[in-house]
Specification:
Blueprint: H1 2-33, H2 40-58, H3 62-84, H4 94-117, E1 132-135, E2 138-141, H5 142-164, H6 166-176, H7 178-183, H8 188-213, H9 222-236, H10 241-261, H11 264-267, H12 270-281
Antiparallel strand pairs: 1-2
Length: 293
């Protein structure tokens, strides 16, 4: 049992890191634009399929696919913002309309990936050397350890950007008070476009990590990751990127440890139980942060 618990903790940290990046990118998007992006999961799976194509067609390994995914999805997000989001501003209820628009986009993207890759689950047949690494008394696939390392680097980089750069501080200020920063002369349209592009770029990177951590993915996997992202966002506090990081790791640990102590069917309920409990007990999530620094 002790070994199973250790395996659960290690896997929880690895899986939780992926969930944390999904939650961080999703909460950045919601915090700045107040857009409920139900298509975020499809962006993540799009990154997985991009890594799949790059490896199987051009022989580019997943690690080399990371910067390609980041740049291409950043550009995709920037274009998508100007095609989709400005129209929401003219709506009487932008948040509700954003949910409907993004839900439709989710279905369209899933159908597009289905046409390109069919319904079969895909995986990247790539292994590092050595195949596994010893972590304490257990062995973990090297690909998963590498994915955890990339997650830490990306999370640290985004956190440093938010706290140490002027554009990052502007994003944090927009999350706290969108109207106030416009009075200070900030171009909210450019900032919003950048936020959408950044969130989409992180989603693309996360998709590559999904291909490394999880055994398979398909065109219909997107909603699963979108739901996980929303759970993490609520657990971490709406508009709280750092809270989303902590919540993602917490959720991953809870999910993986639940598989040790509970039947598989019951373990899947843990995430939703955490969501309901957080809303009932502390609807601010894991806390809030200030913009003064």
């Amino acid at each position: 049992m002790e070994t199973l618990v250790i395996i659960g903790i290690v896997n929880g940290l690895i899986v939780g890191g992926v969930y944390a990046l999904i939650g961080m990118s999703l909460t950045l998007l919601y915090g700045v634009l107040r857009v409920v992006n139900f298509a975020h999961g499809e962006f993540v799976i799009g990154g997985s399929f991009l890594a799949y194509v790059l490896f199987n067609t051009f022989g580019i390994p997943p690690l080399a696919a990371l910067p390609i995914a980041a740049i291409s999805f950043f550009g995709l997000g920037y274009v998508a913002y100007f095609l989709l989001i400005p129209r929401l501003a003219r709506s009487d209820d932008p948040e509700s309309m954003s949910f409907l628009m993004m839900y439709g986009l989710s279905i369209a993207l899933a159908a597009f990936m289905l046409v390109l890759f069919e319904a079969d689950s895909r995986s990247i047949d790539y292994s590092f050397t050595p195949i596994s690494m010893k972590v304490g008394p257990v062995y973990v696939a090297t690909a998963r350890v590498v994915a955890l390392g990339v997650t830490l680097v990306v999370a640290a980089g985004v956190s440093a950007f938010l706290f140490l750069t002027l554009p990052g501080k502007a994003l944090r200020a927009a999350i706290m008070n969108r109207e106030a920063i416009q009075i200070m002369g900030v171009d909210i349209v450019k900032l919003s476009a950048f936020a959408f592009a950044l969130a989409t770029g992180i989603a693309g990177i996360t998709g590559v990590l999904v291909a490394l951590v999880f055994p398979a993915f398909n065109a219909f996997s997107g909603p699963e990751y979108a739901i996980i992202g929303f759970i993490v966002v609520v657990l971490g506090g709406l508009g709280n990127p750092l809270g989303a990081l902590a919540a993602g790791v917490f959720y991953g640990l809870a999910e993986q440890l639940a598989t040790v102590f509970l039947p598989q069917a019951m373990a899947q309920i843990v995430g939703f139980a955490l969501l309901v409990g957080t809303i009932l007990v502390r609807n601010a999530g894991f806390g809030r942060w200030r913009v003064s620094r």
